[in-house]
Amino acid sequence: MRTLNISISELEFNAFGLTSSSLSFSEFLEIINKELLKQNLRKSVQFAEKYKLSKMTMEEITDEVKAARRDAKGNS
Questions:
Q1: Whole-angstrom distance, CA of residue 35 vs CA of residue 7
Q2: Per-domain residue ranges for the chain?
Q3: For residue 29, what pLDDT band results from cuts at 50, 70 and 90?
């Protein structure tokens, strides 16, 4: 097994909620993936608010998805 050393600031250490200086690679990946998911969710919410998509009803969303799928099917 190999050991990989990664240096991060105290601020980053706390921001990621780390409690140990020693992590397995899978633990490290899980932490990074959670952070990326949070960032992508924030961007998606900002995008939805910017283009007024956040005010759509579930029915409107369903109709849009169906239309997009029809268009994709017709273009393939």
A1: 17
A2: 10-75
A3: very high
